[in-house]
Amino acid sequence: MASDISNIIRNEISTTLESLLSVGSSVEEVVLVSSSDIEDCECINIAVSFDLGGKESQWSYFIPTSAATQFEYLMLGGVTDLKDAIDDEIIDAVKEIISTISGSICTSVNAQGFADISGIKSNMGDSSVVSLPNPNSKSSMYKFVVKLNDEYIDMYISFDADSIPFVELLTNDLKGTASSTEMSNSGQSSIITSLLGEESVDNLRLLFDIKMRLSVRLGTKICLLRDVISWDIGEIIELSQMTSEPLDILVNGVVIGTGEAIIVDGKFGVKIKHIGKIK
Q1: Is the pLDDT of residue 78 over 90?
Q2: What is the pTM of this model?
Q3: d(CA 74, CA 117)
């Protein structure tokens, strides 16, 4: 049975939109689309190829005009007028979002260490403005209902036959999944309480208020003393860290994960790509 990456796809769509658009975002529903569900609407179509377990798989993203214009409007901070038609600037904004979503999916999948889908990579293909197509026998199209603050937008992804075994759980009840997670967490809490006793658990909760210093390691470089004493204002120092490499996240000087740099509301931030010990 193929490893399922449905949760990763849903999570990365939600977290990427939240990071790039600076609004609350969540995938509320995923629906398998049939020919009767297709609406007559103009979309931005972006093709992305994925290397899934040694096979090249094709995904096609379809972003309707209403969603695409909203994406660009929010990426610009809502300081411009909301457009009612697709233009080159909107296409560029949507391409950046899809590229980030695809890259994040690859990073998250690779961090899981799946035996049948390791080393996944994505490559952006062509983009065009098209009408939303009918699903065909060689692919499956899903509609993602995404909530951005209090508004709902739709986006579509078409997966080819090689991808379908990895996304079979996309339409699972999201609320049911969340409920199961809550029940699991509640069960774990009960087990801890039974093992340690209520008083010990209360004492442990006190530790949660301890302040920890979080930092991000941008990179390092070994320098000769003769070079250091010759530095002056304006000197550029090249670090060992490549721009494409994940950044180390440290808590009290201990590496606890890796992430990538982002900008949120004009401030630098870091998006966690891996947390915990790498297997």
Answers
A1: no
A2: 0.64
A3: 34
